[in-house]
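Retry 2 of 3 after timeout on previous attempt. Resubmitting structure tokens to design endpoint.
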């Protein structure tokens, strides 16, 4: 039996499987299996208040899970699916409460990865999938990361290194606005532009979502401390009370799509190489650019310390 057939069999039997996506690897279970959905939370050690994203292989399936699907959803799906955009819309009664943490909305996304699209299609059911890491830890962008995280407990489908590298942009879609709950590599500008091209003019703003409880203060953290250094040539680390004897350093000046792709792998490699801490140098001007918003959001949550010039 090949890998994809095995994954489909496990999912049909109500088990969980780690699947590659273009953003990060996900820990998937069929949305029809209460057993699989519960196992996702157990394996991740994730609290039930944190809702899961439902992954579909086409837009029609997404529509079937929503109470309504307006033109804004249609345009965003046409422009960005398959791709790193999750749309939160009002759910209908077919979506189980365990998926949405009891909320009346559901996050929907069509991932851009051929193996995973094929699995969802042939399974005949969407899959709920959070990132395939223990709760609050760094998301995996390679099969080996998932194996390191869960060991033999979880079957992992090989899908190469994730192309995007950080999680999808999560948006709430309303009749009068689009709200960005979690920034990502599809930016507010990209969304505004796509809507405008279809004659839709709505405000698109980043909000601190009260309904996205997964957006915790500390998240994406490796096991060694991360220090963010803003606009410093030679940051002073003495006062931080951490072991700086063997630092992993990264001057974040490269182009954002490259930086996003490498980010989590850098966290994990630094940890694995036995580095004592990670020092990331940034420029505060990056805060003005939507292209950096997703990366800065992850760094803010993964950091232990921050030093300003
Ligand atoms: O790129 C991604 O989105 C990856 C891959 C595997 O698709 N998945 C991912 O899932 O990052 P997860 O569970 O680690 O993060 C999903 C976040 C939740 O923490 C929550 O903040 C938000 O999406 N979310 C999901 N459903 C929501 C809802 N109904 N309302 C508001 N926010 C929701
Ligand atoms: Mg996650």
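Retry 2 succeeded. Sequence:
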């Amino acid at each position: 039996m090949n890998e994809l057939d095995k994954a489909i069999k496990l999912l049909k039997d109500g088990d969980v499987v780690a699947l590659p996506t273009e953003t990060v690897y996900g820990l998937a279970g069929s949305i029809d299996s209460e057993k699989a959905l519960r196992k996702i939370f157990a394996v991740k050690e994730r609290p039930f208040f944190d809702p899961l994203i439902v992954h579909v292989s086409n837009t029609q399936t997404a529509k079937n899970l929503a109470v309504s699907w307006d033109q804004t959803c249609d345009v965003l799906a046409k422009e960005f699916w398959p791709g790193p955009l999750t749309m939160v819309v009002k759910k209908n009664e077919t979506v189980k409460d365990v998926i949405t943490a009891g909320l009346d909305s559901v996050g929907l996304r069509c991932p851009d990865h051929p193996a995973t699209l094929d699995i969802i299609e042939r399974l005949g059911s969407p899959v709920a999938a959070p990132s395939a890491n223990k709760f609050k830890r760094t998301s995996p962008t390679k099969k080996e990361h998932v194996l390191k995280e869960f060991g033999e407990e979880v079957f992992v489908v090989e899908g190469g290194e994730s192309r995007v590298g950080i999680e999808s942009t999560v948006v709430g879609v309303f009749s009068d606005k689009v709200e960005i709950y979690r920034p990502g590599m599809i930016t507010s500008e990209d969304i505004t532009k796509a809507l405008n091209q279809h004659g839709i003019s709505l405000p698109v703003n980043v909000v601190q979502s009260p309904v996205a409880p997964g957006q915790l203060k500390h998240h994406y953290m490796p096991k060694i401390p991360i220090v963010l250094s803003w606009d410093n040539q030679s940051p002073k680390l003495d006062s931080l009370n951490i072991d700086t004897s063997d630092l992993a350093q990264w001057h974040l000046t490269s182009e954002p799509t490259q930086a996003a792709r490498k980010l989590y792998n850098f966290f994990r490699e630094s940890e694995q190489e036995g580095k004592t801490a990670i020092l990331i140098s940034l420029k505060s001007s990056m805060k003005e650019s939507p292209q950096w918003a997703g990366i800065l959001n992850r760094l803010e949550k993964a950091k232990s310390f921050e030093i300003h010039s």
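Attempt log closed. The chain has two domains: 3-206, 226-308.
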